[in-house]
């Protein structure tokens, strides 16, 4: 079976290619590394052995030393990283993120053409089954591809054509050393339960079941590519995001696929993190009447902002509080005192220092903020003013609030003035102007 892998590698590699090889010291990665070392004689490859020490097991140090010595004995470059801190709410995902960040840095350092990992046919079966049970998209249900093109480099999984048994047989027949991670046998982990309970049953039913799953995966990827091309042909995206009014005119199936396509652009090789519940929540949001958010994995957020849908990183609101002397730089622009201006818009306010308590404060918004708007009776919530004026959710996050020293709101720069704005020049002695960042 390894002849097929070698043939595959020989067809994609060229002389002097630089390859980052993710190497744990287990049978899978040592098998891949040995195959590449075998080809090295012919192709003069530049192999970078990348090892991550997760520091979670007592054997970790021995594995790191073993991989280092293997690299040195074969005149290969060795790169090493330790993971010292984890998010224990999702330890596995944290480890994966740190690993791939390390690998990407190495790709950039060595200008590598490929990052190769030792995912094999059994891994593909497990991944597909887990996503079917959890819920995913067409692309997600396909598992992983033999090649993922990330533009500047490609992630290649040459062992996708063989099984774990094939790998162990190859290693033992060639008397090659490897380490076994005992945690792979613990039924505490979801993947291990599929590996030890479901997989043996499937292999008993069909010896080459991994080939069937690979064909299934290829079929789904072809469908996904067709849908992607169709979605890209739709005139529904602007620089503000997806036009919801146009999106909702489409068939419900296509609406779902549009959202899943957006996920694929963001999560790329982490698509397994997104579930079909995330998709359903976004559809519910865009079909509703109100603006809002849907929180997504890896600190992303889907925002419905009036007629537009956008998925972006969830940047927290900036909290700030400044005393305004001459000028203050805020996230949305500059607020400053001026001597004179003929401007009459909401970008300028004129104040009588006797009407307010100095000094003037410029701060971020707070829960429950209200203002007595000029030419209106009573006070109005800042939140309601934002809604009435159709201020985007993104802009609301860091919108400046101008108050006096007793926290009385006197101005929403560029938006609304309070009752404290005066027009007769003989009774005002403070002029504030706002220059909004474009």
Class by SSE composition: alpha+beta
Profile the largest sheet.
Answer: 6 strands, mixed
- Beta strand %: 15-25%
CA gyration radius, whole angstroms: 29 Å
Distance between the termini: 60 Å
Query: What is the CATH T-level topology of the largest domain?
Result: Rossmann fold
In round numbers, the mean pLDDT is: 92
Helix count? 14
User: What are the segments in which pLDDT stays under 50 over at least 5 consecutive residues?
Assistant: none
Helix content: 25-40%
CATH class of the largest domain: Alpha Beta
How many domains, in number, for the residues?
3
Q: Strand order across the biggest sheet?
A: 3-2-1-4-6-5
Query: Which CATH architecture of the largest domain is right?
Result: 3-Layer(aba) Sandwich
Topology:
Layout (H helix, E strand, L loop, with lengths): L1 H11 L5 E5 L4 H17 L2 E8 L6 H14 L3 E6 L8 H20 L3 E3 L4 H14 L3 H4 L5 E3 L4 E3 L7 H10 L16 H16 L3 H24 L4 E2 L2 E3 H4 L4 H16 L8 H12 L4 E5 L3 E6 L2 E6 L7 E3 L3 E4 L2 E5 L10 E4 L9 E3 L6 E2 L8 E2 H7 L4 H4 L4 E3 L5 E4 L3 E2 L12 E7 L2
Parallel strand pairs: 1-2, 1-4, 2-3, 4-6
Antiparallel strand pairs: 5-6, 7-8, 8-11, 9-10, 10-11, 12-16, 13-14, 14-22, 15-22, 16-19, 17-18, 19-20, 20-21
Helix pairs in contact: 2-7, 5-8, 5-9, 11-12
